[in-house]
Amino acid sequence: QKEVEQNSGPLSVPEGAIASLNCTYSDRVSQSFFWYRQYSGKSPELIMSIYSNGDKEDGRFTAQLNKASQYVSLLIRDSQPSDSATYLCAVDSNDMRFGAGTRLTVKP
Amino acid sequence: NAGVMQNPRHLVRRRGQEARLRCSPVKGHSHVYWYRQLPEEGLKFMVYLQKENIIDESGMPKERFSAEFPKEGPSILRIQQVVRGDSAAYFCASSVGGTSYEQYFGPGTRLTVT
C-alpha cells in the first residue's frame, strides 16, 4: 500500500513567521513530488514540483526533498494571512497519491 | 489561455438518477485524471485516462461508476443510480504527460444527492 502521510494540523503561525509543512511517503521508487494549496471550497492549486534531492526555491516558497529519508517538506517564509489554506502533498509512483493535507492558519 | 473546465459546477440528483460530469482539459493536454473529495477529507484518485484509453481505474468503484475520454470532446465521469454517499466534490485534472508531470485542476463539480 503506497501511503503519503501529512500532519493534519491545524498548524498556526503568526504573520511574518516561517511555516514548515512536512510529508513522508512509503514508496521508495517515487520520483516526482508536488505541493498543492487548497482554499476552503476551492480546487487544489499547484504551488511547486520537485524531482531531485535538495532544495527548490520559488519566491517565498521552498520545497525540500530527501529521497533517502522519504521526506518532502514545504517552507513558507514571511507567512501572510492569505497563505491560510490546506496544503496537500502529492507523490507520484505510477499513480498520484495525495496526503490528507495540513491546515495552515496564519494569524495577523 | 483556458485552464481545465468542468461542468456543471453544481449538480443535484435524486437517489437512483444518473449523474454526468464533464471535463475539458487544458489545451494541449492529453492526460486526464478524476478525483473525489468528501467534505473535510483528502483527495482520492479515481481514474486516469488518455484519449480513447483508460490507463488506470484502480480508484474507481467497481459498480455504477464509469469514465471515458473520447477522441473528440470532453472527458465524462458517469455515476449511475446515485446514492447519498456519492455526494462529494469531483475534481478533474489534466497534464501534458503521464503521472510524473504537473497536474492542473479544474474548479470541480459539487454533486449533491437528495
Keywords:
heterodimer; A: 108 residues; mainly beta; 6-stranded mixed beta sheet; 0% helix; B: 114 residues; 4-stranded antiparallel beta sheet; 11 strands; globular
Rg of chain B, nearest Å: 13 Å
Quaternary state of this entry equals: heterodimer
Note the overall shape of chain B.
Answer: globular
Count of separate DSSP helical elements of chain B? 0
- Helical fraction of chain B: under 10%
How would the global form of chain A be characterised?
globular
Unreliable stretches covering 5 or more consecutive residues of chain A:
none
Q: Which regions of chain B have little confidence, pLDDT < 50, spanning 5+ residues?
A: none
For the largest interface, the chains and their residue counts are: A-B, 21 and 22 residues
Largest sheet of chain A: 6 strands, mixed
What order do the SSEs of chain B take from the amino end to the carboxyl end, as H and E? Answer: EEEEEEEEEEE
Q: Assign a percent range to the helix content of chain A.
A: under 10%
Describe the structure.
The complex is a heterodimer of chains A (108) and B (114). Chain A is mostly beta strands. Chain A has strands spanning 4-6, 11-14, 19-25, 32-38, 45-50, 54-58, 61-66, 71-76, 85-92, 96-98, 102-107. In chain A, strands 2, 4, 5, 9, 10 and 11 form a 6-stranded mixed β-sheet that branches. In chain A, strands 1-3-8-7-6 form a 5-stranded antiparallel β-sheet, with no helix packed on it. In chain A, a hairpin with a 6-residue loop joins strand 4 and strand 5 (45-50). Chain B is mainly β. In chain B, 0% of the residues lie in helices and 49% in strands. Chain B has strands at residues 5-7, 10-13, 19-24, 31-37, 43-50, 53-56, 65-68, 75-79, 88-95, 104-105, 109-113. In chain B, strands 2, 4, 5, 6, 9, 10 and 11 form a 7-stranded mixed β-sheet that branches. A 4-stranded antiparallel β-sheet of chain B has the order 1-3-8-7, with no helix packed on it. The mean pLDDT of chain B is 94. The A-B interface holds A 31-32, 34, 36, 42-46, 49, 88, 90, 92, 94-101 and B 33, 35, 41-45, 48, 56, 58-59, 91, 99-108.
